[in-house]
Amino acid sequence: MLTLFHHPMFATCRFVRLAFGEYGEELALIEEKPWMRRKEFLALNPAGTLPILLAEGDVPIVGAMVIAEYLDETRGVLKRDKRLFAEDPMGRAEIRRLTDWYLNKADSEVTRHLVRERVLKPVMPETAGGGSPDSAAIRAARANIRQHMKYTNWLAGTRQWLAGNKVTYADLAAAAALSVLDYLGEIDWREHAAAREW
């Protein structure tokens, strides 16, 4: 069985878990607190970032999109109509663009800051950056939510799925990011009916 080092509140980790779930693949989960900088964890990824997948032969595969590409190459090509990538290069490009939007842009402008300030800092030791939440960081992140929700609402209102006519990695990336924000009570779904229905 493959092993995933993850944190349940990181959108990138949720994305990987959703992708494996879509393909019906089981994962052994190890919850990691990257701020602890454990020696064993850093041996797998000196950058100290999540997610990390221990693949066949315990080879570490690092990063959400790298893991998604690995999953597609080793399992996705056999799934045919349930494959999370499009068959054509332009379709794959759009999937990659939107996946990047949610796992990088939305994460760096919104999700990461709210998770850090509201969830992680209160439980982290001060020596690792813990302490009181930074209200300015929270306000800035909240100000950025509207743009991402408007874009998601537009995508959901003009397409069958976010990147086309079927569920793809783009949908899973958006679901991962938005589920974190929804869990934190940060999304007003009343203003985004198409996104809510999607």
Question: Can you characterise this structure?
Answer:
The protein has two domains: 2-81, Glutaredoxin, CATH 3.40.30.10; 89-197, Glutathione S-transferase Yfyf (Class Pi), Chain A, domain 2 (Up-down Bundle). The chain is of the alpha+beta class. It has helices at residues 11-22, 39-44, 64-74, 89-120, 135-158, 169-183, 193-197, and strands spanning 2-6, 27-31, 52-54, 60-62. α1 (11-22) runs parallel beside α3 (64-74) and α1 (11-22) crosses α6. 53% of the residues lie in helices and 8% in strands. It is built from seven helices and four strands. The mean pLDDT is 96. A four-stranded mixed sheet has the order 2-1-3-4.
What count of domains describes the coordinates?
Answer: 2
**Name given to the CATH architecture of the largest domain:** Up-down Bundle
- Report how far apart the termini are: 32 Å
Assign the CATH topology of the largest domain. Glutathione S-transferase Yfyf (Class Pi), Chain A, domain 2
- What is the C-level CATH assignment of the largest domain? Mainly Alpha
Number of strands: 4
Q: What low-confidence regions span 5 or more consecutive residues with pLDDT below 50?
A: none
Strand order of the largest sheet: 2-1-3-4
What characterizes the major β-sheet?
4 strands, mixed
The overall average pLDDT, rounded, is 96
Shape: flat
State the share of residues found in helices, binned by percent.
40-55%
Backbone structural class? alpha+beta
Give the helices and strands as they follow along the chain. EHEHEEHHHHH
Percentage of residues in DSSP E strands = 5-15%
Radius of gyration computed on alpha carbons: 17 Å
**Number of contiguous helices:** 7
